[in-house]
Amino acid sequence: MQADHHTEPRSRWLALIVLCLGVLMIVLDTTIVNVALPSIRADLGFSETSLVWVVNAYMLTFGGFLLLGGRLGDIFGQRRLFLMGIAFFTLASLSCGIANSQTQLIWARALQGLGGAVVSAVALSLIMNLFTEQTERAKAMGVYGFVCAGGGSLGVLLGGVLTSSLSWHWIFLVNLPIGIVVYVLCLSLLPPHKAESQSQRLDIAGAITITSSMMLAVYAIVNGNEAGWLSMQTLGMFALSILLFIGFVVLQMRLSTPLMPLSLFRQRNVSVANAVAVLWAAALFAWFFMSALYLQFVLGYDALKVGLAFLPANLVMALFSLGLSAKLVMRFGIRYSLAAGLALAALGLLWFARVSLHGDFLIDILPAMVLLGLGGGIAFNPLLLAAMNDVAPQDSGLASGLVNTAFMMGGAVGLAVLASLAALVSQRLLAVNVPLPIALLQGYQLAFLLGAASAAIGAVVVLLLMRENTVAQAPHAPVVH
Asked: Among 117, 77, 199, 81, which Cα is nearest to 409's?
C-alpha cells in the first residue's frame, strides 16, 4: 500500500478533514452518552450497575475489534474498509436511536462499537500514509488529536443540548447525516489504496481468542458487585479470560501471519506507549463518566449544565491538540511532553478527588477541568507518535490498531473497575444508613483518586522507560515509502 504521492496537497488536506469528520462521529459517541445516562436510565429502567453497559457495550466491541480492523485494512485496502465501517456505524446509530428496550439499546451500542473500531483503526493509518513527511505528519496528527479531544468535549455539550431540548434518542440519530456526508465525500477524496499483493491469511482464531478474552474480563468486572467478587461466576470468567489470553499469545508465536506480531513489542517505545495508553485511558474514562455522574447526582445539574461544565476542559484540550502540542513535541521531544501531559491530568483528578457535597463550580470544578484539558491536550499527540513513529509503513494499520486497542481496553477495564469500586463503597455506606448523596460522593472520590494514581504512574513509566529517538532528533524518521 504505497502512499499516493500524486495526491494534490490540497485534496490531501481535504481528505484529512473528511477522515477526521468520520473519526469525530466515533469519538462523539464515546462521550455523548454520558450526559444522557440519567434520562436513559429513567426511560428504560436501568439499574446503577447495568447502566454501565450502555457505555461498556460500545467500548468492549470497539476495543475488542480494533486489532482485527487494523489488520483487515492492511490486507484488503484501507479505503474500502473505512467506507464499510462508516456505513455500518451509521446504521447501528439508527438502531440505537429507535431503541425502546434495554436489550435493543445495548446490542445496538455493541454493533456501533464494531463499526467504530474499523473506522478508528483504519483512519489513523490512512492519515499516516497520506502524510509521509515528518513536519506535515506532526501537523496532521495534531488535527487528528484535536478531533479526538474536541470530539469528546463536543460530545458532552451536544449530548446536553440534544437530551434537554429533544430527547436522548437524538444523541444517536445525529450521526445519520454526518455518516452519509462522510461516506459520499470519501468516495471522491480518498486515493484508492492498493491492498497488499501477497496473499495473506487472516488470523481468525487470534481475533476470536483476544476479543473473547477482553469481553469476559470486562463482563466479570462490571458484574463483580452483583455476583460477588469471589463467586464461581466471577472467578470462572477471570480464569477463562486468562486462559484465552494465553491461548492468543501462543497462537501469535506460532502463526506465520499473526494478528499481532509480538515482534512489534521489541520496539521499546511501542511497548511503553501501549502500556501508558492503558493507564491514561483508565484515568480519562473515569473522569468523563464519574464527573458527569457527580455533577448530576450530587450537585443536581441538568444535562445541559453538565455539558457546559465540561466546556472549559474541552476548549483547552482542543486548543493544545490542534497546534501547541505538536510545537511542544518538536521543542521538548515526545518523552517530556507526554510525561508533562499525564502529570497535569493526574493533578486535575486529584483536585476532583477533593470535591464536596456542595461543590462550587469556580473553586472545585473549573480548575480540575482546566488541568485535565491541559493534560489531555498535551498528552494525546506524543502518545500516538510514540506508538506509531518507529513502525514500518506496512504495519501502520496494525500499530494504530494496537494503540487504539490499548486505549479502549484501558478505558473499558478501567471504567469497569472504578465504577464497580465506587458502587461498592456507596453500597456499603448506604447499608449503614449514610444519606445517598454522601454515599455516592465517597464512591466518586475514591474513583477520582485511583484515576489520578493511574495517570501519575503513566507519567513515571514514560520518564523511566521511554526512549527519545524520534521526532525531535529525526526529521528523517523511518517512514519513507
From this structure: 117
Angle between helices 9-44 and 134-165 (to 10 degrees): 30
DSSP H helices, 320-435, are: 325-353, 366-388, 396-431
Nearest to 260 by CA among 419, 70, 390: 70
Coil vs helix vs strand at 306: helix
Report the candidate in 175, 233, 216, 230 with the shortest Cα–Cα distance to residue 63.
216
Tell me the per-residue pLDDT of 305-363, one tens digit each, with 9 for 90 and over: 887 888 888 788 777 777 677 777 777 877 888 888 899 999 999 998 888 778 778 88
CA 51 to chain centre: 19
pLDDT tens digits, one per residue of 237-267: 999 999 999 998 898 888 877 777 777 777 7
Contact between 298 and 107 (Cβ < 8 Å): no
3-state secondary structure 86-108: HHHHHHHHHHHHCCCCHHHHHHH
Q: Which residues contact 130 (CB under 8 A, 6 or more apart)?
A: 3, 4, 7, 12, 15, 16, 140, 191
pLDDT value at 49 more than 70: no
Measuring CA to CA, which residue among 288, 292, 260 is closest to residue 274? Answer: 260
Average pLDDT over residues 414-425: 83
Query: What gap in Å lies between CA 326 and CA 338, rounded to an integer?
Result: 11
Q: Where are the alpha helices (DSSP H) in 255-324?
A: 268-293, 303-309, 311-319
- Please, what is the end-to-end C-alpha distance for the chain in angstroms? 9
Distance of alpha carbon 226 from its chain centroid, rounded?
A: 26
Residue 129, C-alpha cell as written in the block:
500514509
- pLDDT for the residue 473: 36
Other beta carbons less than 10 A from residue 217's beta carbon: 22
CATH superfamily of 9-189+259-465: MFS general substrate transporter like domains (1.20.1250.20)
